[in-house]
Amino acid sequence: MAEAILMPRLSDTMTEGVIAAWHKQVGDTVSKGDLLAEIETDKATLELESYQAGTLLHIGTGKGGKLQVNDLLAIIGTAGEDISALLAKSTGGNEVVAAAPVATPVAAAAAPVAASTAIDISTMEEVVLMPRLSDTMTEGVIAGWQKQVGDKVKKGEVLADIETDKATMELESYKDGILLYQGAKAGEKILVNDLLCIIGDAGLDITAIVAASKAVASAPAAAVTTSAATPAAATVLAAPVAVANTVVNEGRIFASPLAKKVASEKGIDLRFVKGTGDNGRITKTDIDGYTPATAAAPAATTSAAPSVSVASVAGQISFDEVPVSQMRKVIARRLSESLFTAPHFYLTMSIDMDAAVAARTKINEVAKVKISFNDMVLKAVALSLKQHPKVNSSWLGDTIRYNHHVNIGVAVAVEEGLLVPVVRFADGKSLSQINVEVKEFAQKAKDKKLQPSDWEGSTFTISNLGMFGIEEFTAIINPPDACILAVGGIAQVPVVKNGQVVPGNVMKLTLSCDHRVVDGATGAAFLQTLKSLLEEPLRMLV
Active-site positions? Predict the structure, then answer.
């Protein structure tokens, strides 16, 4: 009896998969354990093995095509078996693609005008779409192309460096051929699943493919462009020197989505901008380098004002505007969602660090690496979480996950924002192991070499600003964690010991808690355990 194989969920954040390659074709005999296909997920390209024997009767989509998790991927059964009932249950309609995977590009080349509305470029073997390289990525910036149009490309060679919201990663080609088209230049953005490039045989007509991708990309921007055109045009016509501008684009204007957005924000009419991209396409660089003729008018007016004394001029208004980086966009989105959806409350406790200061001095006399106070805090937190599993938990909507493992995220500041690599199973690691791992993560973060496996899977997060002289602060929870610990610096302050006022080393810790998961008493009990370990650090070594 024929059996449907659905697109499996191959990672915890996967919502769809891209067919990187089929190793079996319709009509082939399949044995249990045979490699069916290679599936590109949001994190990696994985091999999918068949869990049954038979004949491959149907393929849900061709190479390069996308399927949502649980969509029909394939059907395996007996040769000649009627599979119409299984196909009827499929809502994706991908059977048309599987029936004629090669016919679509040929038809597109013959009728490019009609194809712009009918072609699904995601099903074409030659098309490479922008992959989702992290669980939070929505768009990527081309940091640099390693291959140029006309270059030969081999499977496994690096095509381009893609800047995501968390790191700059190398994108390898999964096929051989010639690079025929690039969807964006270095520095430009491409949305996930938009056309990144085309790799195929020399002489392939890519006109219909490019036109189809541009039609999809420009469709949502059309309304914005139309609505913005009227005020932009009015501004130009109202200025006395606007007549000096020359119209260089008439009819349909080809421009990247980013160029359209920047032009709209700056009030630039795209009719007057000369594009330097393929086929005269306007890019963000063209917009940045465009100077309207009206720009000189305000300066002339200011210099001609007779009532202003030169001596009264104290300075000039000046500022820089830079595009928001991918990383900063995701930081803004995720932390806003956390703060406004998770009911935060905060618990602050002062820790007597005299014993920790003395212990660290003795430890560093024999340790192969220099142990930091941050290492001691991380170890103490890990041991405390084992005693308080409700703090080591995650809010999942309908369920609360109480984690038995302790994976601690360590917030690392980089130039573009903040990354949180994860020290896994921290409760079982020594202070020296923690020290080495944190330092390696910090360097990889600054070099933009962190991989998705480095920052995913935390159960608790620590943010330490003590080294910057910050005594106390509150932090926003890093979802889906239930808590985050804000660590301040160690300050020498007067303290009372044995009835005497003496100098003491005090460090303040603030625990931010998600009240949906952690109650006040639970958070307080965790801090008490943490306090006892830091004030008697030898207990951490037992």
Answer: 515, 519
